[in-house]
Q: What sequence folds into this?
């Protein structure tokens, strides 16, 4: 068995047999297709340790700091662009596959506001020979406006949420809350990486609020969440605004939220009803409440929903503490009329505490009525209509 020999296919010099331990992979210049290795001299003639681009341009949004990567804008949250430049260069640099024990250092050099030079120093070992290389990649920061910021600047919107109320003007609390919901919906979508979510404009109108937002999906979410919280209903209407560049029709959707006519805490007098005024507990679905004459529970019919025919007498907040003069019987109590300070006999609801020295009362055109004592400790101030210690007594 003769000694196996190999030769450099370029210069013909003998090369050490690198496959001695693996006869199947033996190199042979006479057998095409087998891999033949160059001698060290020819190998290093061609050897390129680091492959670096001549220069890199990084597109950043001058308004929000987003960086254009691949084919889209990405929020990176970078304060300055050195890190962005470093990352772009790192991604663009390539090291020869044969090199082992690669180590590298980088040093950014800020040239001016829009130019950064990245100096990189590489070391490694190939064919038992230490190699090193220094490269410098100039990075230009191109300041542009991303699509989102362009749209915001152009007052772009795809959807309007109109906050209105049935038969009244929404309260400032409801309007503030609707705006908070809008900002929260957008923040939640941004948190999932959605760059197309924004509130374009919030404008008060004579009868409520108009919230312009960037997508129909956001408009729908805001409208639904507002109704979830306050009750009421949503109607949506599409308007054709334009065609996009592909000829598709583009619709703008208006979500009209109508908050219910009565709110928890309202005291109302129902039409065609002699059961006495009702303190509204919930306006979700059918209106629910408590009779302030008896303490009995009231719930509107399905047909009436959240808007039975009624007129508002006042609110629980309008109630004033007044002195209990005497308990007459199980149906009647004497209290001081809060305006005339004369003793007056009024209906005794079952939530009335016979030991109380004072009780909150509401005086309206329907007379004087004892209100439930608002006790924050019972959690009774919420509007869910589920927990009510007085209803449990009934
Ligand atoms: Zn050679
Ligand atoms: Zn931007």
A:
């Amino acid at each position: 068995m003769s000694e196996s020999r190999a030769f450099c296919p370029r210069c013909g010099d003998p090369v050490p047999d690198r496959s001695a331990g693996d006869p199947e992979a033996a190199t042979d210049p006479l057998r095409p297709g087998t891999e033949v290795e160059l001698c060290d001299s020819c190998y290093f003639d061609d050897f390129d340790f680091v492959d670096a681009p001549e220069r890199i341009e990084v597109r950043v949004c001058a308004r929000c700091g987003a960086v254009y990567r691949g084919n889209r804008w990405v929020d990176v949250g970078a304060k300055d662009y050195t890190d962005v430049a470093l990352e772009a260069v790192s991604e663009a640099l390539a090291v020869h596959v044969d090199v082992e024990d690669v180590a590298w250092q980088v040093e950014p050099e800020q040239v001016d506001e829009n130019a950064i030079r990245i100096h990189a120093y590489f070391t490694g070992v190939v064919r038992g020979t230490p190699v090193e290389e220094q490269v410098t990649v100039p990075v230009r920061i191109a300041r542009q406006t991303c699509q989102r910021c362009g749209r915001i600047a152009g007052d772009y919107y795809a959807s309007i949420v109109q906050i209105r109320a049935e038969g009244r003007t929404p309260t400032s609390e409801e309007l503030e809350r609707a705006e908070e919901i809008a900002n929260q919906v957008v923040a939640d979508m941004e948190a999932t990486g959605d760059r197309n979510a924004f509130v374009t404009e919030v404008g008060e109108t004579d009868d409520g609020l108009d919230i312009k937002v960037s997508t129909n999906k956001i408009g729908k979410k805001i409208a639904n969440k507002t109704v979830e919280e306050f009750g009421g209903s949503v109607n949506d209407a599409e308007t054709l605004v334009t065609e996009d560049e592909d000829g598709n029709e583009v619709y703008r959707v208006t979500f009209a939220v109508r908050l219910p006519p009565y709110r928890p805490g309202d005291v109302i007098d129902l039409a065609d009803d002699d059961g006495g005024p009702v303190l509204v507990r919930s306006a979700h679905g059918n209106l629910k409440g408590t009779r302030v004459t008896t303490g009995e529970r009231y719930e509107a019919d399905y047909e009436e929903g959240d808007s039975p025919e009624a007129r508002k007498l006042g609110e629980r907040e309008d109630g004033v503490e007044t002195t209990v003069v005497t308990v007459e019987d199980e149906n009647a109590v004497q209290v001081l009329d809060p305006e005339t300070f004369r003793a007056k006999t009024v209906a005794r609801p079952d939530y009335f505490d016979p030991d109380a020295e004072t009780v909150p009362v509401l005086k309206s055109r329907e007379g004087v009525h004892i209100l439930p004592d608002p006790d924050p400790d019972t959690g009774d101030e919420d509007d869910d209509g589920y927990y009510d210690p007085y209803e449990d007594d009934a």
Summary: The radius of gyration is 39 Å.
